Amino acid sequence: MSTLSNLSMTRRQFLGTAAAGAGVFVLGISLPGCAKVDEQGEGVINAFIGIDENGVVTFQNPFIEMGQGTYTSIPAIMAEELDADMAMLKVVQAPHGPEYRIMFNNTTRFTGGSFSVRSSYMTMRKAGATARAMLIEAAAGTWRVPPGECTTEPGVVIHRESGKKMTYGELAPLAAKLDIPADVPLKDDASFRLIGKPIKRTDNRVKATGEAEFGIDIKADGLLYAAVKQSPVFGGSVQSYDQDAVLKMPGVVAVEEIPNGVAVIADQYWRAKKALEQLPVTFDEGDNADFSSKSYLEKLKAALNESGVRVENVGDADKALSEAAKTIEAVYHAPFLAHQTMEPMNCTALVTKDHCKVWAPNQGADFVAKVAAEITGLKLDAIEVITPFLGGGFGRRFIMDYTAQAVTLAKKLPGKPIKVIWTREEDTQHDHYRPMTAAKYRAGFDAQGNPLAIQITTAGEGPSGRLNPEFLKDPTIDESIFEGGPHQPYAIPNKRAELVNVTVKPVPIGYWRSVGNSQNAFFKESFIDEMAHAAGADPVEFRRNLLTEQPRFKKVLDTAAGMANWKSEAWKDENGIKHAMGVALHESFGSIVAQVAEVAVDDGDIRVVRVWCAVDCGFAVNPAIVKMQMESGIVYGLSAAWSEEITLEKGRVTQSNFHDYPILRPDQMPAVDVEIINSGEPLGGIGEPGTPPIAPAVCNALFKLTGQRVRSLPLSKYTF
Amino acid sequence: MTTLMINGKQYELDAEDDMPLLWAIRDIAGLTGTKFGCGIGMCGACSIHLDGELVRSCMMPFGAAKDKAITTIEGLASEEGLHPLQQAWIDKDVSQCGYCQPGQIMAAAALLRENPNPSEDEIRTKMTNYCRCGTYLQIFEAVKQAAQLQGEQS
């Protein structure tokens, strides 16, 4: 299965990144289905595991760590089959290149879409199992016994009869010379020591001591710093600037243009920033200086009355609505949102004649390499990508704008490493935003209050169509703007959904945590609540009755309702403050999540008291991380629902920092209870599915409390 | 050149007086555990101790820190080992992305010095640092554990 040439290439890359010592054993394995590719000489070879003479297992993680736990869950899957303890592992970030494109039939690699664990689970198990088989074979060969007489304990191969032992570290150089076996059997699930267990995070110590290195912390000899100012109007460009005004300021090295702005480079970041503030610069605002989010919203609302591209059609919704005893209609909208990673955008690059090194917090090392190769004109194998820890990603770091800036500047000053750091203001005003979206929902009921039909029109522009049009099967149907609205499990006999594409250019849009689900779950689950109210039914009971054919959804809903001890009516606490519960149920990224939110309103102030969350992600590979990610997703969604909104006037973003783009504070944090349902269904994602249900759960509780139906966000615009 | 005392060690730093202390600590002294988050003193990622007082170093001019003792996350542990808060942070697996956590720990250390046994309500209102990953509940738990550990040790 292996090919030597590819293995040696793999080994070189491995050693380069792992800084492993001599005698390191590098495992390269071909994945099933790749043999043909190998024969063509474009081998897709994975190289995940290296073992040095001390038995330290260096694990090349193809997925980046941005908080979601990949530096724990992914190596644990491999270590389960290798029979290694977590303490034996050194987790490093794999370089760019085809060897690590293990997603979607070995065609790509990125970290996002809640894909890491579910897309690599079997690959990682096979990688570990294959390495273990080779270590056993090496030991058996040394002892001249059949491999079947040998077994392992963590880090050690043992010959059962004689009790002879050799460590993985001793065996690694011998194992590296063996052919790579095919179809090594995997462990029985019942014997798992690590998979399915709440394994502690591998990164928790360095993150508590300050040693964890983020992109913004990168050190390099002769490092220079760049502060950047980008065109405040999207699509604008630099018209003129007067570099002579700042070149004599302390520490200033150069003033250079970047694709949509200008940069000052200095020996210290503060000096670069200060000089940039004093640099006279004029921008050509281009054609978009009249764009406003308010007028775009009007455009979206008007589009809801047009007919669009049909994206769902079951039965005859028009007929059912015209014959219905009762119909309801509601229009919802959701604002642009920024990602606001705690670590602002930054990137460091060093370009020489034949090499380019990029230190980039990123969600796809191949994307970094591609951008660097395009800018420098170097070949991909001359690009070295270092991916440190990410101070948050949430979809922002798929976009390579900040990387392109660093490489552009480094190319202009060859031989000098340059670190670009955005201020929070640049970060807020030059994000790639969750797109503003509007939707109209209609439903019809029979005389008994049974739902007959649901009709959905969504208007907006999705990030996939803008950024990755090649992913769309039909260029007119971009799911990333309406996903989570149509195609729901509720048994409603007639369903129709349409999409009206309304471009939001020039505003940069991107993937925000849970993508289209974040706004469409709010629309859909709020409307299901409106339907329950119209039918005079309890919101949990109403949903249950529509899920009789969907036992998995029903169980998740029932679990959350049970955890919360669901209360249909509002109540007053001992201080006379009114409380109520709201519920929402949503599937995204292969996982089903139900949340019940208890909300109190006291003299107009909202308090989210507690959230009960049930999740069915098939099987929890690390239940502790699943729980944390549910909490994290809830906070991210709640923060947005509560107070986050990006608006644009005169083509530019109004907000600039946390004072006018407030994110959830500690004193606003609700208690959270999470229960995991291991249904045995295929693995689902966990990084995002916690986000979509929280906004509708909270808003549905607010309706019960105040009678006011929230049909747009954030809540901070409302008075209760 | 200006001398600063950071974590009990002298640093000779070449910086203008108006430079925020944050950048002097990070870029010149090379102690990158203290993070840049917002630059306006809101998020708390840059939290340090100045003569034992909690300050947001992005708002503190370098010139105002002369002759004062600075403690950063790198100086929180002692020769005996990690600070009880750092140990609690590890035990409770608090960190997700981890970027805000040095600032959170510095803020918690100041809180416990002032109030060795805070209630959850006090922790919720006194800890004002932002965490975008939403680790707040783990932070509250870790502060309580560290308070208990410190109580047992003293």
Unreliable stretches of chain A (pLDDT < 50, length at least 5) are: 1-12, 15-22, 29-46
**Strand residue content of chain B:** 5-15%
Instruction: Estimate what percentage of residues of chain A fall within beta strands.
Output: 15-25%
Report the CATH superfamily of the largest domain in chain A. Answer: Aldehyde oxidase/xanthine dehydrogenase, molybdopterin binding domain
Percent of residues in helices of chain A comes to 25-40%
> Taking strands numbered 1, 2, ... along the chain, how are they ordered across the largest sheet of chain A?
10-11-8-18-15-16-17
Mean pLDDT of chain A: 93
The radius of gyration computed from the alpha-carbon positions of chain B, rounded to a whole number of angstroms, is 15 Å
Span between termini of chain A: 66 Å
Query: According to CATH, what is the topology of the largest domain in chain A?
Result: Aldehyde Oxidoreductase, domain 4
CATH architecture of the largest domain in chain A: 2-Layer Sandwich
GO molecular function, one term (chain A): isoquinoline 1-oxidoreductase activity
Domain Aldehyde oxidase/xanthine dehydrogenase a/b hammerhead (chain A): 209-287
Enzyme class (chain A): oxidoreductase
Keywords (chain A): Oxidoreductase, Signal
List keywords for this structure.
heterodimer; A: alpha+beta; Aldehyde Oxidoreductase, domain 4; 5-stranded mixed sheet; 19 helices; B: 154 residues; Ubiquitin-like (UB roll); 2 domains; isoquinoline 1-oxidoreductase activity (chain B); Oxidoreductase, 2Fe-2S subunit (chain B); iron (chain B); metal-binding (chain B); 2Fe-2S-bd (chain B)
What's the arrangement of secondary structure elements?
The complex is a heterodimer of chains A (720) and B (154).
Chain A: H1 4-18, E1 25-30, H2 35-39, E2 45-51, E3 57-61, H3 70-82, E4 89-93, H4 116-143, E5 150-153, E6 156-159, E7 165-167, H5 168-175, H6 204-209, E8 224-230, E9 237-241, E10 252-258, E11 261-266, H7 269-278, E12 281-284, H8 293-303, E13 309-314, H9 317-323, E14 326-334, E15 346-352, E16 355-359, H10 365-376, E17 383-386, H11 401-412, E18 418-421, H12 424-429, E19 437-445, E20 451-460, H13 463-467, H14 479-482, E21 494-501, H15 516-534, H16 539-545, H17 551-564, E22 571-572, E23 578-588, E24 591-602, E25 605-616, H18 623-643, E26 648-649, E27 652-653, E28 671-676, H19 694-706
Parallel strand pairs in A: 3-4, 8-18, 16-17, 20-21, 25-28
Antiparallel strand pairs in A: 1-2, 2-3, 5-6, 6-7, 8-11, 9-12, 10-11, 13-21, 14-19, 15-16, 15-18, 19-20, 22-23, 23-24, 24-25, 26-27
Chain B: E1 2-6, E2 9-13, H1 21-28, E3 47-50, E4 53-56, E5 69-71, H2 84-91, H3 101-114, H4 120-126, H5 136-153
Parallel strand pairs in B: 1-5
Antiparallel strand pairs in B: 1-2, 3-4, 3-5
Helix pairs in contact in B: 2-5
